[in-house]
Every structure is written in structure tokens, then in C-alpha cells.
Write a structure and sequence with these properties.
The chain is α+β, with helices and mostly antiparallel strands. The protein has helices at 2-19, 40-44, 199-220; strands at residues 25-29, 50-53, 58-65, 69-79, 84-93, 110-118, 123-128, 132-133, 136-143, 153-156, 166-170, 179-181, 189-195. α1 (2-19) crosses α3 (199-220). The longest helix has 22 residues, at 199-220.
């Protein structure tokens, strides 16, 4: 009985930790992580490919969730000339070809945002962004000049695309609005979190928990 209790309790703790994001999984990744330690000068000289993440260029990618999720972190592979902040935002879309409703990301389709720190030598960086998202299409967008972000830098593109990611971009100074980007592949944009368990799993836990507590009391006595 004691062994069964320990197994049940460990299972319950594992479930609880995952739901609370302590062991977040990769929910979406646009590409693989290439070699890190790239300098800003490497991007400027184009010896390593990169894309501007700045006050004058926002870049992002569309993705789809087919189940409810709890996001935990957003991030990717970035670098800048000096350390500083940039923003990441998740935007709800109406479909696979939709764009954010606003250029300054001020409309209600922006469901959450966070500040990230540019490294001066390229690295994979993340920031907390905890959201409960329903199944559907979304965009993960990075840039600067909004939400308190102040630094211009770049996304390093020295990995390989996973599947066929749908990249998008926006230039505040442009009259064209949001556009699809097909000529700049291999970004490393990532959303971490956990898939929300099916209702049946939650029901099972609610049924099992009283029994586990009862066993715990008996063992203690």
C-alpha cells in the first residue's frame, strides 16, 4: 500500500509541475538552433545571415495550436551590438494567412508581450510569457521601440527551418503594412509551455486525489 501511495503521489506531483510550467516543453519552433557566439559584426558583414529586430523592422512567424496550451516562455537566437532590451509578442490571427491588426501592436489581437535581453554574443534567450491560449492561429513577433524596448539588434539565421514556417514582417516607415517574407529563412523563434490536459485527465486527478490523501492519512497513522 505504501508503495502504491508513493507512486500515485509522484505521478500527481509530476502532473502538477508540468501544468505550472516548471518543465515547459517546446510548443513551437520555427527552426533549429545554429552555432551560437556569433557577433553583431558577423551579421553586419553578412558572414552569418541575420534579420533586423529593431525599431524599424519587426519580424515574426505564424503558427497554429491544435489544442489548448499554457505558454511559459518565448525566445530564440539573437544578438546585438550592445546588450539591451527588445520585445516579443504573441498575436491572435484569424487564419493561416492573416496578419496582426495593427503596426504598433496596440489592438486587442495582441494577447501578450514580454521584454527580452539582447546578448552581445549571440545566444538563445528567453523571457517569461504566461498565457492560456485556445486552439487557433497565432503570430510570434519580435522588434524594438514598443512596450519599453529600446535596443536594435538581429535574429541569427544559421540554423535550418523546421517544416515550412510562415514568416511575416513589418516596417513602421513603410506604406505596405505587414508582409509575408519568403527570402529570409532559418530563424530560430520559439514558444515554450505545456499542452492543457484533456478534461478526462483532469477528472481522473480530481477523483484520485481524495483517495491519495486518505491513503496518506492511514500510512501516517
Amino acid at each position: 500500500m505504501k508503495r502504491a501511495f508513493c507512486i500515485s503521489l509522484a505521478t500527481l506531483c509530476y502532473f502538477s509541475i508540468h501544468v505550472n510550467g516548471a518543465f515547459a516543453d517546446v510548443l513551437f519552433e520555427s527552426g533549429t538552433l545554429g552555432p551560437t557566439g556569433v557577433s553583431w559584426m558577423d551579421l553586419q558583414a553578412q558572414s552569418t545571415p541575420g534579420t533586423n529586430i529593431s525599431t524599424f523592422a519587426y519580424n515574426g512567424v505564424r503558427f497554429e495550436f491544435t489544442q489548448p496550451v499554457l505558454t511559459d516562455k518565448i525566445g530564440g537566437h539573437f544578438v546585438a551590438a550592445t546588450e539591451g532590451t527588445f520585445f516579443g509578442a504573441i498575436v491572435e490571427l484569424n487564419g493561416a494567412s492573416d496578419f496582426p491588426n495593427s503596426g504598433d501592436l496596440s489592438t486587442p489581437d495582441v494577447v501578450g508581450h514580454a521584454l527580452l535581453a539582447f546578448p552581445s554574443s549571440s545566444a538563445e534567450v528567453f523571457s517569461d510569457l504566461k498565457l492560456a491560449l485556445t486552439p487557433g492561429w497565432y503570430a510570434l513577433v519580435f522588434g524594438s521601440g514598443l512596450f519599453g524596448a529600446t535596443t536594435d539588434g538581429g535574429a541569427v539565421r544559421n540554423g535550418m527551418d523546421i517544416g515550412n514556417p510562415s514568416y511575416i514582417a513589418f516596417q513602421p516607415s513603410s506604406a505596405f503594412g505587414w508582409v509575408n517574407i519568403t527570402t529570409f529563412p532559418n530563424h530560430r523563434f520559439v514558444v515554450k509551455g505545456v499542452v492543457v490536459p484533456e478534461p478526462g485527465v483532469l477528472a481522473l486527478v480530481s477523483i484520485t486525489l481524495p483517495s491519495i490523501l486518505f491513503l496518506a492519512l492511514r500510512i501516517r497513522r
